[in-house]
């Protein structure tokens, strides 16, 4: 093996090592959202993404924000509550979100509405301690999709009235 071949192999080994290391790093939900990833992507989706997008930094960011693949992994995750965050001034552009807030939201006592200036519509999923676990953009969701998602993912309240 000549020096020229070794010079070709070393950058390849370094690149593969970098991919392996960065794949194990995880970014926060906020950091992933700022990069354009919702956290709902499975890591296998990032591998498919890499086949089409040759930007290694973008693929690396995807891997830092993805969820490990497992049998039916996403359907088993539930949350203790959620915050529907949206900008009040932008509500006019999201009639489905308005419909959900006005007609469906009261069915879910653990879901709160929070108005934040310039925020796109999103669901912030909360754990048992009220800490943010996942952020999901809902810009293009229909009301029935919001309803179904919350019914499946947010635990009903256990408080007795």
Question: Which helices and strands, and how do they pair?
Answer:
Layout: H1 3-24, H2 29-35, H3 43-52, H4 56-65, H5 73-76, E1 81-86, H6 95-103, E2 111-115, E3 122-126, E4 132-137, H7 143-153
Parallel strand pairs: 1-2
Antiparallel strand pairs: 1-3, 3-4
Helix pairs in contact: 1-4, 3-4, 6-7
Notable characteristics:
single chain, alpha+beta, 4 strands, globular
Question: Could you describe the 3D structure shown?
Answer:
The protein has 161 residues and is of the alpha+beta class. The protein contains seven helices and four strands; from the N terminus they run H-H-H-H-H-E-H-E-E-E-H. A four-stranded mixed β-sheet has the order 2-1-3-4. The relative contact order is 0.14.
């Amino acid at each position: 093996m000549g020096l020229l071949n070794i010079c070709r192999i070393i950058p390849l080994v370094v690149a593969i090592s970098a991919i392996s290391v960065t794949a194990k790093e995880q970014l926060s939900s906020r950091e992933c959202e700022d990069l354009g990833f919702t956290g709902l992507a499975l890591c296998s989706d990032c591998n498919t993404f890499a086949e089409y997008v040759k930007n290694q930094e973008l693929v690396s960011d995807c891997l830092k924000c993805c969820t490990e693949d497992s049998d039916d992994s996403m359907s088993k995750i539930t949350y203790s509550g959620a915050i529907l965050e949206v900008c009040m001034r932008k509500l006019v552009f999201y009639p489905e979100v308005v419909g959900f807030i006005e007609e469906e939201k009261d069915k879910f006592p653990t879901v709160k509405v929070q108005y934040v200036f310039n925020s796109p519509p999103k669901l912030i999923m909360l754990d048992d301690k009220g800490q943010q676990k996942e952020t999901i953009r809902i810009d293009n969701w229909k009301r029935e999709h919001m309803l179904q998602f919350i019914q499946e993912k947010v635990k009903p309240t256990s408080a007795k009235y």
